[in-house]
Specification:
Length: about 375
């Protein structure tokens, strides 16, 4: 089996650091006393560019900073070419000059993909600046870009040498993107940790409104726990199965119908929003099978709403769309559904026998439940 090593480190206020610790991995990765190509999401550059430049100056990093537009609609081959051009122009030395990617999941995926194919593999460092980046895109080993209607259809397995997770970037992230990241955190809670679910139930709303900044000691503790637990749970699942040889992956929860939902509604729904709709639908299916009780389903739907996430989109009623999504998933999962369904809260099981009739019954149940939640929120 191929061995890989990659480091994920939690840091606070990275760009405010005056002197990076001598001899640390950090110093070497970030290129103290050397030069680095830094590819940065152009929105992040507008907000943090000045801080980044002065960070490089103070720490003796000769940086070439290249801003690149990054959002789901440009997560395509053209953006990869822009990054390849920047690497080529910089004259990257692939033995000692890792590319540094600063931005959300789109930017780190695009740079990771470009780095992984440039000279058959150039190292890269990730500095995620969104919640999805911190808890999901930044901790895995996959890179990907969209192709035709296929979400992440082109991609590679290419772990970043190091990923630096700094939640302070979240203070400028739009609310909707905070909720977007919370969807992936909720996913981990639903399939693996009732404890994390209870934490989201009690503090999720306040931590969301506080943008994970920890404005009070209680909020700080909750924000740190939510991020740390979710990363820990994610790494625990990913590590034994990095190359996805085992196709029964519980982290695929919420990702059976969501790729189709997301690509058919682009740009109306964000990734995490589509994932949440998938989780709401599969909760309904689990409820109808008796795996989840009505009161557990109500708690799950309520937490989704307090995290600012949608449970419903009309695309679910488009004829044949869910059957098509399931067929697509079966193709990717070597001929079987291998569909993770929640069992209670914090546990799951895989099933292979979901029928078209069951999908429709789930949609019907969810539509009623979502109307109920919306009425409560409005009233
Ligand atoms: N490789 C993986 O394992 C993996 C895992 C999960 C998700 N992903 C991918 O991640 C992508 C979603 O990532 P995302 O949610 O980070 O989206 P994103 O990269 O599009 O970022 C969201 C928006 O926030 C802006 N932004 C980024 N940081 C900011 C900050 N600190 N302040 C203000 N604005 C900021 C961006 O410019 C963008 O407009 C999807 O394409 C998904 O496929 C990959």
């Amino acid at each position: 089996m191929k061995q890989v090593e990659y480091k994920v480190r939690l840091v606070d206020n990275l760009f405010d650091t005056v002197d990076l610790p001598i001899d640390s991995d950090l110093k070497e990765c970030l290129g103290v006393g050397a030069r680095r190509l830094i590819v940065i999401d152009d929105t992040v550059e507008r907000i943090y560019g000045e801080q980044l430049r002065s960070f490089c100056l103070r720490n003796d990093i000769a940086a070439k900073i290249v801003p690149v537009a990054a959002n789901e609609t440009v997560k395509r081959w053209d953006s990869v070419v822009d990054v390849l051009d920047a690497m080529d122009e910089f004259g990257i030395d692939r033995r000692r000059e890792p590319v540094i990617a600063v931005g959300g999941g789109v930017l780190t995926d695009v740079v990771g993909f470009a780095a992984s194919i440039f000279r058959r593999g150039t190292p890269y460092i990730r500095v995620p600046t969104t919640l999805i980046g911190l808890v999901d895109a930044g901790v895995g080993v996959k890179t990907g870009i969209n192709y035709q209607l296929g979400k992440n259809r082109l991609g590679t397995y290419a772990p970043a040498t190091m990923t630096l997770l700094d939640r302070m970037f979240l203070r400028t992230l739009p609310d909707r993107h905070i909720s977007n990241g919370l969807a992936e955190i909720l996913k981990m809670a639903l399939i693996k940790s009732e404890e994390l679910f209870v934490l989201l139930e009690s503090s999720g709303r306040d931590v969301r409104l506080d943008q994970f900044q920890g404005s009070t000691p209680n909020l700080d503790e909750a924000a740190r726990s939510i991020i740390a637990d979710s990363i820990h749970l994610m790494l625990e699942e990913l590590q034994p199965n990095l190359w996805e040889a085992d196709l029964e992956r519980c982290v695929d929860y919420g990702h059976t119908f969501s790729p189709t939902i997301e690509m058919h509604t682009l740009p109306a729904l964000l990734h995490g929003e589509a994932v949440c709709i998938d989780m709401a639908l599969t909760t309904a299916i689990a409820l109808l099978r008796g795996y989840v009780t009505p009161s557990e389903a109500d708690r799950i739907y309520a937490v989704m709403a307090t995290l600012g996430l949608p449970l419903w989109n009309d695309v679910l009623t488009q004829p044949g769309i869910l059957e098509q999504a399931l067929a697509e998933t079966v193709r990717h999962r070597d001929g079987r559904q291998r569909l993770p369904l929640p069992v209670g809260i914090g546990r799951h099981r895989f099933v292979n026998d979901v029928t078209a009739g069951e999908l429709q019954a789930g949609v019907h149940h969810l539509q009623t439940a979502a109307r109920g939640i919306a009425a409560v929120a409005a009233g």
